[in-house]
Write the structure tokens for this entry.
Amino acid sequence: MNKPYIATYVYKKPRETCTFYVSRETEELTNSAQREVGRRLGERVSDLTFWRNELAAELEKMIQETSLLHDSRRLLEKGLQDLEAPLHIAQECLYHRENRTGKE
């Protein structure tokens, strides 16, 4: 890569030559800056793509875990309902036992 021309080296030349070198230096500096900005933007796009994919993977894991938790909750609620009848019977038996008069 050529180094950009520095305007101080061309001050002794005629006006047209000086203008040419200054415009050439400005163009080279502009192109160099644009390449650097393009490279940085490319890195940023790569970083954003990586993190978007990471978030999508984590979201999928959370959705699966939430689904498993819902299934577990449903099973536990069903188990609780299944135990209500035997609990009621056991409580009723205890109530009747306490109200008996006499010894067993």
